[in-house]
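How a chain folds remains the central question behind the approach discussed here. For one protein, we set the task of working out the structure tokens from the amino acid sequence alone. The sequence in question and its structure tokens are set out directly beneath this paragraph.

_____
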Amino acid sequence: MVKMPPLIGELLDKALADGAACLIGTATKDGHPQISPRGSVALFDEQTLCYWERGGRSSRAHIAENPRVVVYYRNPARAAEIPFPGAGLRFHGSARIVESGELRDQVWDRTIAAEQARDPERKGVAVIIDVDLIEEFSGKSILTAD
């Protein structure tokens, strides 16, 4: 897994408020792709991203079939803070769903208030993404797994 700097967490924390929610790309086991916006993507630790999955639609089913995902982040409002062309990054990794327990609670705690308000009964699940590649939009690798 990669070792992500704190800057990534800072940028992701501001993404929804900046009108730049991340996009999560998933695919079925047969490769049928799908992209969904997620306003709760956060840095879980220096190797892992997370988000609160409250929709319960195709993204969750896709992850159960095929854990490979991509997270697309682009935020022109923060271009001065992002030292890469295009003011964004793509994070590649393997996702897993956490339906209960301490890990789920930790993701909830990292979820921004605006997204928590959309799931007041906490019916969603946590999604943890073990990141193995971060690239800029040209396809150049920024960070890769050791």
In short: The mean pLDDT is 92.
